[in-house]
Amino acid sequence: MESNVRVRFAPSPTGPLHIGGVRTALYNYLFAKKHNGTFILRIEDTDQTRYVANAEQYIIDALNWCKIPFDEGPGKEGGFGPYRQSERKNLYKKYADILLEKGWAYYAFDTAEELDAHRKGHEAEGKTFIYNWHNREKGRLVNSLVLSDEEVQKRINSGENFVIRFKIPKDETLILEDEIRGTIKIDTNTLDDKILFKSDGMPTYHLANIVDDHLMEISHVIRGEEWLPSLPLHNLLYKAFGWDAPKFAHLPLILKPVGKGKLSKRDGDKLGFPVFPLEYTNKETGDVSRGYKEDGYFADAFINMLAFLGWNPGTEQELFSLEDLIKDFDLKRVSKSGAKFNPDKTKWFQQQYMQTKSDAELTELYIPILEEKNISKEKIYVEKVISLIKERAVFIEDFWELSSFFFEAPTEYDAKNVKKNWKEGTPELMQELIAVINNIEDFSSENTESKIKAWITEKEIGFGKVMQPLRLSLVGKLAGPHLFDIIAMIGKQETVARLNNAIEKL
Ligand code: GLU
User: Fold this and answer.
1) Whole-angstrom Cα distance, residue 102 to residue 381?
2) For atom 10 of ligand 1, which residue has the closest CA?
3) How far is CA 287 from the centre of its chain?
4) In a domain, 101, yes or no
């Protein structure tokens, strides 16, 4: 099916991608796939002062790990490239010139010091300085709207620094549409004449973003709420160029788990959870930030959790595969209000996904960990172990703690449990138990259970008297799955050896 839906994720490569950015990418991806459209990655790297060399690769790796790859972008040409703005820099000047010609833009020569003085002067009076017609009429600004043509030419020819600004119309009410927020009305007198182009030959975000969205035939701009204040200007830019504007959807902020405001890396550090999809090393400071991947999260659990930060299906269902998300995702069900991040819920998703993974799949993930410990066991054995322990696991890393006794005898015994359960007479009882076990032919879980229980009943002693020391001998602590499953798995010889070991050591 043909589709005109083309959406883009347009990060600036200034560092690792925050989970808010991943959520923006995800919603763009879901929207594109739902409508058989195209998901584009555009790297907005016009601000060279904030450029970080490994950030682009980080972004691409993060999207790939999340299994939401882009269809067009750096390295994946689709007829609309290049997809890095730094490689497109020669095309933007032409568009600034068009606006100059049409009277929608003008040259401005105000120095940083002058603008700073205006700002401070306004602040001292409790006002906010806006670079617009008002201050122009007050004679405070130095630009081509107040200077003569010759003066402007002279300044440009002499190499004086200038910028090109957008001329916001005076006394208009803009009626803007947002797919999530509905109709928004803005008084143009509250808007700044934003800079579009700098004398270093580089466009600003606003110009490059609009030109590229137009040239790349973007149909829907889906981005974070922090860009909502730019919507009036962007809307006017489309009007100034005479282009059709795409539809806009501004996603709600992701909020701190406690307190007010946007979720930050500091919240993660303080409360002990990552805010980045992948681990990130800051090359300058050497600081390493945790990532969901390295913390042991499954990508599908992470994605499911992220999808729910601002969207819900309107039903009770919480577990959604990527395919389900594509099917059910709808911008109409994205909320306007911020979404509180909940680290416990993230863990809950991870645990749920752990249960849905097949034992065979988990076995492949566990075997390398076992190999590191020099343990080699048949796959079928490891698979069985996983089936017995996985309901208690959240991460693959939990497997060893939950299952080490299936692979090796305990090297220590929990002191508290020993004190409570290894009593006088226990060694003799365990000796008798060894004799019973040695006589069991069929060593299945069911059969050992019925034989050992029959013996306990016959001896007329409490079950705990036998079962607790037996568990301690086999596991080292009073934990783990059904004891007779453990016995059947490790086998008769090993069971007896561990009992002898405990008798000797305790
Ligand atoms: N480069 C902007 C950012 O870093 C893109 C904003 C937009 O999507 O328009 O988020």
Assistant:
1) 75
2) 11
3) 19
4) yes
Quick check: 230 pLDDT over 80?
Answer: yes
Q: Let me know if 332 is a catalytic residue.
A: no
> Is the pLDDT at 2 greater than 80, yes or no?
no
In this structure, which residue's CA is closest to atom 2 in ligand 1? 11
Pocket test for ligand 1, best of 8, 9, 223 (most atoms within 8 A of CB): 223
Cα 146 to middle of ligand 1, angstroms: 33
Final residue in a domain of this structure, among 337, 371, 403 = 403
Cite the DSSP H helix spans in 10-111: 19-34, 55-65, 92-102
pLDDT band with cut points at 50, 70 and 90 for residue 318 = very high
CATH number at residue 273: 1.10.1160.10
306 alpha carbon – ligand 1 mean position (Å): 19
| Buried-exposed string 250-289: b where 16+ CB fall within 10 A, e elsewhere | bbbbbbbbeeeebbebebbeeeebbbbbbbbeeeeeeeeb
Residue 323's contacts (CB-CB under 8 Å, 6 or more residues apart) are: none
Q: How many domains does the chain have?
A: 5
423 and 475 both lie in a single domain: yes
Owning domain of residue 370: 357-403
Q: Is the pLDDT of residue 363 over 90?
A: yes
CATH code: domain of residue 236: 3.40.50.620
Q: Does ligand 1 come within 6 angstroms of the Cβ of 18? A: no
- Ranges of beta strands (E only) in 33-86 are 38-41
For the CA of 205, the closest atom of ligand 1 is 1
For residue 283, pLDDT over 90 is answered with no
Give me the residues paired with residue 166 across strands.
105
Q: Is 84 contained in some domain?
A: no
Q: Can you list the alpha helix ranges (DSSP code H) found in 263-342?
A: 265-271, 299-307, 322-328
Pocket test for ligand 1, best of 227, 238, 248, 253 (most atoms within 8 A of CB): 227
Answer yes or no: is 428 within a domain: yes
